[in-house]
Amino acid sequence: MADDVERCREALKRCPPGHSDRSESLNNLAASLRDRFRQRGVPSDLDECIELLRAALLLRPPGHSDRSESLNNLAVSLGDKFEQRGIPSDLDECIELHRAALLLRPPGHSDRSSSLNNLAASLRDRFQQRSIPSDLDECIELHRAALLLRPPGHSDRSLSLDKLAVSLGDRFEQQGIPSDLDECIELYRAVLLLCPPGHSDRSWSLNNLAVSLGDRFEQRGIPSDIDECIELHRAALLLRPPGHSDRLSSINNLAASLGDRFEQRGVLSDLDESIELHRAALLLRPPGHSDRSSSLNNLALSLRYRFMQRGVPSDLDECIELLWAALLLHPPGHSDRSLSLDNLAVSLGDKFKQRGVPSDLDESIELHRAALLLRPPGHSLRSLSLDNLAVSLGYIFKQRGVSSDLDECIQLHRAALLLRPPGHSDRSWSLSNLAASLGYIFKQRGVPSDLDECIELHRAALLLRPPGHSDRSSSLNNLAASLRDRFQQRSIPSDLDECIELHRAALLLRPPGHSDRSLSLDNLAVSLQERFRQRGVPSDLDESIELHRAALPLRPPGHSDQSQSLNNLAASLGHKFEQQGVLSDLDESIELHRTALLLRPPGHSDRSSSLNELAASIRARFKQRGVPSDLDECIEHLRAALLLRPLGHSDRPLSLDNLAASLGDRFKQRGVPSDLDECIELHRAALLLRPPGHYDQSQSLNNLAVRLGDRFEQRGVSSDIDEAFSLFMQLPHISHAVSRTDLTTAKSWATAAEKINHGSALLAYQTALKFLDQHVTLLSPSSRHFDLVRMATASLAVDAFSCSIRHDELTTAVELVEQGRAVFWTQLARLSSPFNELSLLGDTGAALEAEFKQLSFRLRSAFDRSTEDQSPQMRQLTMQWNDVVSRIRMLPDLSRFLLPPLFSDLQKAAAEGPVIIVNASQYSCDALIVLSDQDPVHVPIDITQTEVSDLSSEFQSLSKEFGSFDNQHKLVSILRKLWHVIVDPVVQALRVSNVHPGSRIWWCPTADFTLLPLHAAGPYEKKRDSLPHMYISSYTPTLATLVRARQQVSRDAPPQHFVAIGQGNPDGGRPLDCVAPELAAVAQRLVPVVSSFASLEDNDATVEGALDALNHNQWLHLACHGMPNRQQPFESSFAMRDGPLMIKDIIRSNWQKPQFAFLSACHTTVGDEKSPDESIHLAAAMQFSGFCSVIGSMWSVDDKVAQQVVSAFYGNLVDDSGRLDCTRAAVALHKAMKKLRHNNIPLEQQIVFVHIGV
Q1: Which of 94, 499, 854, 1241 suits a disulfide with 483, CB 3.0-4.6 Å?
Q2: Residue 10 — φ and ψ, nearest 5°?
Q3: Are the beta carbons of 452 and 778 closer than 8 angstroms?
Q4: CB neighbours (10 Å) of residue 913?
């Protein structure tokens, strides 16, 4: 090389200034110096080279045939200088010279492709320095142009394909455009075809294609990409045997790709091979090698992954040792020091999580802070450092409970998220981490909005991890966990259902062999266990136990999560014991908890949780067997747990509460006053940690108030009971979304107030019913939520009514009993609420009305159709509906839109006759007569709730045996009792109120009164009238229902379209011979009267046929089997030819102005005996679906009797103008039954039909 330079110098001396060959000699000497610079790296060689090239360029002015060559050579050398020294002006000049050279090499010039290529390469260099997108875009276009000049067969085609692929890969990394990466891969495939086996560049081509496929796998998670990537890297490695200069690169790339596949599929053999490859790479980088630190780091991280999967401590110890060695090779000032600090910090955090040594966590945080200082604003890895430091602060918060740590954690996560805008490859991680931190702060402070934000962030992260994404299972898991937290706070069943479905989806992505399978089995099991506790379905608990048993073998002795699996299986067995009472389940549960505790020695981060759960199991055994030592041990464990949850710990209030509860148990067993005193002080301490706004505050208020009540009962100190009720009276002022706990506490308040006749009782009921309304509003309409409504409403309304009566607040009694009965129907009725006020308020009102109606229609149409996958959409619809309602209430005069009605609204129900509410409560039984023009009239009833219940049970048993003379005698006995105790006192009050005989009256019974035939009560003695001889009775489930029905009666004279549907041969049912004659009798009466008459019988009377007919007819006669379903009331049905027409089908319908329905079927007014106040029966379904007037039956109907009733009934339904009038239905039925009384028909068939509605 030295000889070349000297020879060229001698040649230059022979070409002095002015010599014709001087420019060529300058060029040759410059080329020799550039070659020597590239070999030895001496800067002066390159400087001289550039000066010589500048001189040569001056000798080749514009027009000179070699000018383009000089421009090109000078540009290339300036590019070399930029690469060595990084001076931006050198690169800028390089680019301008390449541009000038390109202009001198127009299309057709032999060197044009070379100039295009060189200019593109320089622009790419500038893009890498300054990240100006236009440089990269121009680079790509130039490479495309060069490729066109190098068609198949051209010697440099593979080079152009390669360069274009590289640049497209760069743009993909910057902008994330999928098509760039796809094109890049296709170009690399084309290069590989030009490098067949034996070609010197084949290993490079294999490597480049593999790397690009790996990038696409990281973006899209397509399994075939990572599989092909690995096979290509294996092929490249075979072409780079020991001693090959690029062998190390291939080993590293193959190891990294195997690690990526492990992360997606969790196959341990991939991770083991990856580790062995990284060990091989490290051997090729001995001490002193410039890249040794990189190999130390790669091996360390792979060992960390294996530790996280298997929990073997030695893997983590070796990982940390390697990372310390890497850090020593990255002293202050080294460009990779921040990365080493970061990795070591993360691994020390892992070690803390496994062994609980606080110094490891402290050191981890200090290292993360040091890394962050080396990544100032603008640094490409700043967001990663913010994220990592935040995660570590989250761990230290969980250990020590210092709020400032958690606040800083969230602040750092928010800062990281701002640095990862939409489109950023790590945005999903930032969303996920911020969500997790908000979940922690919610658990500490209980602010519901934190949890809502957490869930929305997890949803956003999941959207960025579509099917196939390697982290999708993690996002499914995280979102599920947050929904479970919200379920525990607000008890919205759809949250728990969605949680379970998300965990099922995550489990499918973690098949046998996947590293996280045990975690998914565990999480799904825990969620099913939660649902079992809520709904009591045994299959949920059985599945939960099986899943926990499946998870346990995947966490063998030594596994870091074995204690968690033991703990969770123990908890499930504890719940099974609670359900089935098998003591062996409880004993196994306790032993498993004891084993888990041994694996969580002092210092373990989860020790307090194990102590707490073991205590809970032992407490359950104490309650079963009453062995005092069990309770003492329970209290001892709870004290130990409390010591591990110091002030600031998120679970401290829970520990305080649990210890308090157990001391309360011991007080009840042994009567030691100090136990009760300590119990109260602990509940006080828990309450202080749940300030106003905390979702569990009401639970703490309740716990403390109840124990103060216990102490008042023991010692009679009035300050205790005063304090108890002052605590309860904080409830009306809670500011967060109402939870089931809040409602339970309000009911507890009411119970406590009733117990001592406290003056706050009525306020307690009003608060509870307000909470009930707010809580139910959060539920999407679904029969899955009915059990929740039933539990929430149990006896609340009837007790509130009784309390109001006893406080002489008669109008309040009406309001409260309305608010707490038929809650489910009321919620559904809101979805079809007719109103015209909005259209009077201009465009805004009209728009809100349209939005309200659309959302209501969608919710009602979706009733019980939603699969688990649709539950998020259902919940979203419910939230949108609530939002529209809130906006409507802001309009003038609409502040009470869809709120529980006031008495002034309800009184309109009595416009055509009095409504008599008959109420049975544990505190009193009363009747209240609501009149249209005066205050309600109270009628005391001399019967207890227990006696009403007994009478109802007696009647229900009797109704199943109707037919014999003996039954007639028993029926008369019951009707006489109803008369003497209930109905006669009401009749006397009606007479005093000037309600004349022959008038219409409406019965609105509650509780067990709903199952008794009040309309037929009487003395049944000669010369004494029974109720049917005095008044015309109708029923209504609620007053609001009757008001709504009156509003829906057609006031004009529209066409009257009638359909008669009869099914005498139902699917799987007993034939009904009288259906056809009955429909014939209806037709005979009505064909001359109505605008149109349609009849569906036998094969035409199908479910779809009936529903379709009701879309076109407003008047209905239905003759078929009625099939009540007391276990699943929403599946009560009418038997059609092809199957059941169920209540839920009726609810989903959207019939236009239906008027009247005669349900000539059995049991159509019989609902769920467990919740009679909800009126879930066929007749109520028809009424709530819009029918203003309905005839139904209370028990089995004799077919022949039904035919006689129908014939007589329809003759009386026509008004003086010759039209049907649905408001005459009660009178028509009254006259028809009166006629039957003369036909020697059994008494039970004379009174089986009842009228509901207007």
Answers
A1: 499
A2: -60, -40
A3: no
A4: 20
Gap between the Cα atoms of 868 and 159, Å rounded: 54
Straight-line distance from the first to the last Cα atom of the chain, in angstroms, rounded to the nearest whole number:
112
pLDDT at 1179: 81
Nearest-CA neighbor of 539 among 549, 552, 529?
A: 529
* DSSP state, residue 979: I
**Per-residue pLDDT reduced to its tens digit, 789-841:** 555 566 888 999 999 999 999 999 999 988 887 666 666 666 565 555 555 56
* φ, ψ for residue 440, nearest 5 deg: -65, -45
- The C-alpha atoms of residue 871 and residue 862 are separated, in whole angstroms, by 10
CB atoms within 10 A of CB 4: 15
DSSP secondary structure of 785-842:
GHHHHHHHHTTHHHHHHHHHHHTT-HHHHHHHHHHTSSHHHHHHHHTT----TGGGGH
CB 926 within 8 A of CB 938: yes
Helix axes 607-625, 628-643, angle to 10 degrees: 160
Torsion of CA 601, 605, 609, 614, to 10 degrees: -10
Residue 1245 near residue 1191, CB atoms below 8 Å: no
Edge-first strand listing for the sheet containing 1092-1097: 937-940, 925-930, 915-920, 1000-1005, 1032-1035, 1249-1253, 1189-1193, 1156-1160, 1115-1119, 1057-1062, 1092-1097
Cα dist from 122 to 104, 129, 460, 1089, whole Å: 18, 11, 40, 93
Closest CA to 1104 of 1158, 1154, 1156, 1141: 1141
975 burial (CB, 10 Å; 0-12 / 13-18 / 19+) is: buried
Please write the tens of the pLDDT for every residue from 1041-1055: 899 888 888 666 778
Ordered strands of the 1122-1123 beta sheet: 1122-1123, 1133-1136, 1139-1142
Distance of alpha carbon 499 from alpha carbon 505, whole angstroms: 10
Given a contact cutoff of 8 angstroms between Cβ atoms, the answer to whether 1045 and 1253 are in contact is yes
Phi/psi at 930 (5° precision): -95, 120
How far is residue 919's CA from residue 938's CA, in Å, rounded to a whole number?
A: 11
State the number of CA atoms in the 13 A half-sphere of 241 facing the CB.
0
β pairing state of 925-930 and 1032-1035: unpaired
* C-alpha span between 389 and 373 (Å, rounded): 11
CB 8 within 8 A of CB 28: yes
Q: How far apart are CA 760 and CA 334, in angstroms?
A: 72
**Angle, in degrees to the nearest 10, between helices 43-58 and 22-40:** 160
CB pairs under 8 A, 24+ apart, for 188-195?
188/161, 188/162, 188/212, 190/161, 191/158, 191/161, 191/162, 191/165, 194/157, 194/158, 194/161, 195/158
Residue 1159: closest CA among 1070, 1046, 1078, 1073: 1078
For residue 456 the two structure tokens come to: 């929305």
Q: Which of 754, 637, 755, 745 is nearest to 701 (CA)?
A: 745
In angstroms, the CA 236 to CA 230 distance is 10
Phi-psi region of 446 (alpha: psi -120 to 50; beta: other; left: phi over 0): left
The answer to whether the predicted template modeling score (pTM) of the entire model surpasses 0.90 is no
CB neighbour list of residue 1056: distance below 8 Å, 6 or more residues apart: 1089, 1090, 1091, 1114, 1115, 1219, 1220
The answer to which of 446-450, 602-606, 891-895, 1108-1112 has the lowest mean pLDDT is 891-895
Collapsing DSSP to helix, strand or coil, 1192 comes out as strand
Cβ neighbourhood burial of 896 (10 Å; 0-12, 13-18, 19+): exposed
Two tokens, residue 1011:
């199952």
The closest of 770, 1085, 714 to 900, measured between CA atoms, is 770
* Nearest C-alpha neighbor of 1230 from the set 1044, 1090, 1031, 1053: 1031
Q: Is the pLDDT of residue 295 over 50?
A: yes
Strands 1115-1119 and 1057-1062: parallel
Q: Is 559 left (phi over 0), alpha (psi -120 to 50) or beta?
A: beta
Written as six digits, the tokens of 123 are 């622009």
